[in-house]
């Protein structure tokens, strides 16, 4: 039986997400769903931040703290990755008729609704929205009790052969409590780049603070994705 959660380095995990997007973009698959967990710590951020004036100093400082930097293709801000995190990557093509805002909002809903349903089944009330003091904050955070549990991001490409857009929607779930170290390294990066640093550990929450066996729930999460996406007319290959 194939392992549900791939154990990969941060760089290899980012490559696996790119591969999922490429398979859908190239027509090899209509959709892909990937679960992966980092083998080690890294601070992952958009490539554009590599152009900051203080980036070299920031990179050295993060490495000293045990969080080497890895660059990703999606937008947003720095996000700590470690064995405490479960990554979910969903890729599929959308109809040509969908306008930009519709396809963006739909992609976030298709990513976030199964997560919220999963948490509800665990007896946890989840919501979406921004959280002051959270790293890579956004209105499609998945939160518990007003604290961020899951960060989300997207990347889009357009196929020339049929004009359809293909999305990679990504969620990073904090499964184990590493909030303090994560907030510290993001703040260290910002300070080295002479940027405001106000990331707070208490703005986040880990699933193991609300459930004793978070990793045992991944199979159920996969089932929620299968069910929700099928109801949207999006069939996933066997996981």
TrEMBL record:
It comes from the Bacteria. Gene3D superfamilies: Bira Bifunctional Protein, Domain 2. Residues 27-233 form the BPL/LPL catalytic domain. Pfam families: LplA-B_cat (PF21948). PANTHER family: OCTANOYL-[GCVH]:PROTEIN N-OCTANOYLTRANSFERASE (PTHR43679:SF2), OCTANOYLTRANSFERASE LIPM-RELATED (PTHR43679). This is BPL/LPL catalytic domain-containing protein.
């Amino acid at each position: 039986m194939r392992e549900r959660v791939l154990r990969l380095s941060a760089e290899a995990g980012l490559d696996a997400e790119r591969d999922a997007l490429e398979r859908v973009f190239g027509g090899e698959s209509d959709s892909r769903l990937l679960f992966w967990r980092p083998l080690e710590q890294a601070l992952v951020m958009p490539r554009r931040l590599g152009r900051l004036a203080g980036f070299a100093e920031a990179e050295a400082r993060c490495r000293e703290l045990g969080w080497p930097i890895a660059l990703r293709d999606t937008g947003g801000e720095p996000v700590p990755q470690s064995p405490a995190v479960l990554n979910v990557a969903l890729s599929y093509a959308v109809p040509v008729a969908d306008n930009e805002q519709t396809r963006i909002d739909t992609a976030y809903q298709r990513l976030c609704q199964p997560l919220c349903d999963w948490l509800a089944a665990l007896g946890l009330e989840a919501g979406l929205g921004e959280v002051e003091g959270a790293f890579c904050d956004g209105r499609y955070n998945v939160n518990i009790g007003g604290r961020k549990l899951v960060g989300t991001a997207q990347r889009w490409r357009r196929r020339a052969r049929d004009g359809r857009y293909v999305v990679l929607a990504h969620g990073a779930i904090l499964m184990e409590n590493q909030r303090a170290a994560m907030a510290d390294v993001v703040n260290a990066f910002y300070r080295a780049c002479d940027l405001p640093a106000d990331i707070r550990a208490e703005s986040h929450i880990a699933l193991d603070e609300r459930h004793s066996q978070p990793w045992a729930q991944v199979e159920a999460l996969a089932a929620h994705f299968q069910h929700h996406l099928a109801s949207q007319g999006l069939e996933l290959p066997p996981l």
